[in-house]
Amino acid sequence: MRTQADSSTGSASMSGERMLDGMGFDSTVLGLGLPAQAEALIAQAGLVRQDRAKAEPFLLQARAMAPHHPATLIALYRFHFYGHRLREAREVAREALGIARGALVPGHPDPVAADLPPITDEQARFDAAVRFYLFTLKGFAYLNLRLGDIEVGRAALTELQRLDPQDRVGGAVLSVVLARAEAHDAEDDADDALDYDRQALSQGRMPHRGWGTT
Q: 24 - beta bridge partners?
């Protein structure tokens, strides 16, 4: 299910069909091959992250330099997510899903279609590219639920459960978010919702860990 990147010309900007010179997608997930200038721009954004007007241009420049490198997408996603700009974060997640799926299933046109070949539990635990896809799918599901696109969120969550039945990336906790969305729960505290993993970890456990079917 893995793919190795085709050789490239060494340009900082990568095409959609090539990842990095001599590297597989797993390596890029781990941060390797990121142009030094892009890395510096992400670092600069981190220094002024509280000021959106100053931080965002740095992240956009980094993304333009390495538009298909996971590191630039992750940085932009986190910037929007923790700034409570959920729609913007969802669009970055959608793009990241497409890139990750393209690495796992070369040439696949749909980033969230429910037909990715089954993965093993070992891949869900240790394969960087697979885990990047699963975590991104988890984020995409959550963001759609929070934004009221329940059908899309439910579909993404169902796909996550199919691919990760042992719940290695903690997606089952989103069943609570889905239930609240479906019930139109009046409680809608953004900080609490955005920190659902952090709260669970502070309790020393992941609430609702596991899908309840395995």
A: 4
Q: What is the pLDDT of residues 58-86, one digit of tens each?
A: 999 999 999 888 889 999 999 999 999 99
Residue 67: helix, strand or coil by DSSP?
Answer: coil
Any residues with CB less than 8 A from the CB of 211 and at least 6 apart, and which?
Answer: 161, 165, 167, 172, 175
The pTM score is 0.74
Taking the alpha carbons at both ends of the chain, their separation in whole angstroms is: 24
What is the distance between the alpha carbons of residues 157 and 12, in angstroms, rounded to a whole number?
Answer: 34
pLDDT tens for 179-194 read 888 886 544 544 444 4
Beta carbons of 97 and 136 less than 8 angstroms apart: yes
- Give the DSSP H or E segment for 153: helix 150-163
Task: State the Cα–Cα distance between residues 106 and 35, nearest whole angstrom.
Answer: 24
